[in-house]
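Sequence in, structure out.
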Amino acid sequence: MGSYCSCSGSLKYNNDVVIPNNFINGKIEEPMGHFRKEKQEKKANIKRFKTYNNNAKDKKPDRKRTIAPQDKNSFISSSSFNLPHKIITNSKISQELINELYSRYKPLDDDVPVEEIQLSYGDGGIEYRGEWNKSKSERHGRGILMVNREKIYLGYWKNDKMNGLGKQIYFEIDIENISNDKIFTENKTYSYYIGEWKDNYQEGKGKESWPDGTYYEGEYKRGKKWGEGKLLLPDGSAYDGQFKDGEVNGKGKIIYPDKRKYEGEWLNNKFNGKGVFIWPDGRKYIGEYSNNLKDGYGIFEWPNGKKYRGQWSKGKQNAEGEIYDPIKDKWTAGKWSMGKKVKCNM
């Protein structure tokens, strides 16, 4: 952001570039240096997130840590359900677990006759246990699906697909060593999604939680965060606002652990458009952003009352602008070139 020239004082300030380094599908971090150490310490926990950095290419999200498979955002690819299935009698899904499901989820009130069944798909890596519409040979009602002992879905089915309220647990859970009540409750020791589903996709309102402290509650569409939502990150950062296509888009507010705040417009996980950024020491910027950087017209205020208003480019004062001296109660016009004062009008 540069500094004042001699004609308007010598107060300098650092270039606090506001960069959400990681976001949903992931986290926000700002500025880069502030969280770099923490990022390294928690590297294993944040692979599921895309990384946004002006000087680095986006990292690919770890397939294992994403909320849903990469081909589609559904719980399991639709092609898996085309595998041949057979009735089994020794399912890995226990009778106690299915009884717990029945006690927590009421039967569907749609007059469709169902019976309980245990099925194995393909080579046996996928198992289903629950209610079954025999007339159409499809899952219908309450049921549990386990995929390769890595994911498990517990909830409602309609038309052979997950529809209605349900819970998805993935990856960290050891189903043989966890009590049934903890599987159904919002337990912070494993990763889960609980909420509404439509045709095998998270759709409607739901919640997600990870053991590292990441938590989201809000709206979904076609398996992606879409609509209004709240996101809490392990470092204590909290975002509240709009999502679209799995990313932050629209209007939203983020508060960082050190009490810095940004509220304004977002595009693809970055500050874009009009916004307000406030620092705990009293500094404030009100103006336009582009790709996380101050860009366009904006006003920067210091705690001592001095102000700059004018044009910005890539985070720095650029072109025409004015400096306000609170002691003289006077605005002084000038010209800047990428943060440096090149002209002063006395």
